[in-house]
# Entry
Amino acid sequence: MFTYEFLPSERAVPTVVLLPGLFAGGWIWDETVARLRAREVGIVRIHEPLGSLEKVIPLETLRDAVASVVGELELSDVVICGNSLGGLVALDFARTFPEKTSAIVVSGAPGLGDDVNLGVGTPRQLTREFAYTVAAQLFYDPSFVTDEMVDRAFEVVSDRRVAVNILRALRAARQYDVALVLPEVTCPVLLVWGEHDRVTPAAPWRAALPAFKRAIFRALPSSGHAPMLERATLFNNELIEFLESVFAERLGAAPRPSVLTT
# Structure
């Protein structure tokens, strides 16, 4: 179902699995991959935008596809890191496979608060102009949007089948009972949100923090729905600090309380 890139590590630490969202593929993690590889962390990067896959619903289909990749690579200790719909997949993976999940990192996930809202309506025909309008909603600073980003996203959604998939996936996300799932996630959780995420606002997730057993919340300033792009340095700093605490715990060292407690 997925194509992926596997960059193994000889370090005795969990492998980080990077999940994209509906519209954007694994390229959103380019800077994150560079930072993690500099620290010799193993990585699995899923290539396809989730909306481009043949089966995106129910959500369990995506979860099981991730589990298949993890099983194929014989990984027993992973950190699932997902943006947007990929964040919901990370939550469901941790809930279903706690024995394999060292931690999860979630950013811009739907499912709490109001429905996902791009604020641009639904066009009769998908055009590049519409793609630019959507992209501008995803970022705090619309000037961050490049022609290359739009072309990559438009290549995905211009396929009518994919556009239908995306609508179905959004419906599935609304039907997924996130509030019920949160207490069932027992591993450490890092929630990293753009402070100005207009698509999946941060406030409901910040409010839901006590529902987790072990979680922290970080809001990144001057950032929208994709902080790993718009505020890459800050995002990756938070990710690496969190991973270091998880790695320390797995290796038997004392984790830093400021990282692993609410």
About this structure: The beta strands are 4-7, 15-19, 43-46, 78-83, 101-107, 189-194, 215-220. Residues 118-124, 254-262 have pLDDT under 50 and may be disordered. The first helix runs from residue 30 to 38. The domain at 4-114+160-260 is CATH 3.40.50.1820 (Rossmann fold).
